[in-house]
């Protein structure tokens, strides 16, 4: 591996410095770290310096950042990777950080999907939940497996009725405007058109 040159040091914020290397990498460091490591524009990093900074400074921070993100809220693996990428960590260090938190089961897409369905499943159809889970990076097989485990508990016709009650909707007295609004509300939650029309008494 050849030596690496620091081609530029920017200041994206008061608390951070953005180092650009001639191998295409971006390093985000604190001003104190730049000073203590004696880093400057045009500086040539030896192989040993490059590896040590990546491992002991940036790599460790990526793992801490991953832990911090998961402490604030549960995330799918894809969401976690996206957040780390937004902080401009190198791809291989993102892989290491994700592998680290997965080794402690802090990231578990099946658990995430199970929690997501339990918390949101009372107001959305299985199809809508499946789509949302896939948008969050949950594998289709994982989403299907979790939804299947709740299949016996989910009666989508009964769910529509409960939502109508919560929103004080009376099919016998609703006018066309109210029907149209309620139809859109239920449709956005992924319920089948035939089920909606039947419960709204549009058929």
Description of the structure:
By secondary structure, the chain is of the alpha+beta class. The chain folds into three domains: 4-103, Arc Repressor Mutant, subunit A; 109-153; 156-200. 59% of the residues lie in helices and 11% in strands. The protein has ten helices and four strands, in the order βββαβααααααααα. The protein has helices at 31-36, 47-72, 77-86, 91-103, 109-120, 126-135, 140-149, 156-166, 176-188, 193-200, and strands at 4-13, 16-21, 26-29, 44-45. A four-stranded antiparallel beta sheet has the order 3-2-1-4. Helix 2 (47-72) crosses helix 4. It is elongated and about 75 Å long. The model has no long low-confidence stretch (mean pLDDT 90).
Distance between the termini: 72 Å
The total number of structural domains is: 3
Task: Give the amount of beta strand, in percent.
Answer: 5-15%
Structural class: alpha+beta
Order of helices and strands: EEEHEHHHHHHHHH
Question: Major β-sheet, in short?
Answer: 4 strands, antiparallel
| Helical content band | 55-70%
CATH class of the largest domain: Mainly Alpha
**What is the arithmetic mean of pLDDT?**
90
Q: Rg to the nearest angstrom?
A: 25 Å
* Overall CATH architecture of the largest domain: Orthogonal Bundle
CATH topology of the largest domain: Arc Repressor Mutant, subunit A
Q: Can you count the helices?
A: 10
**What overall form do the CA principal axes indicate?**
elongated
Strands in their spatial order, largest beta sheet:
3-2-1-4
How many strands appear in the DSSP assignment?
4
Unreliable spans: none
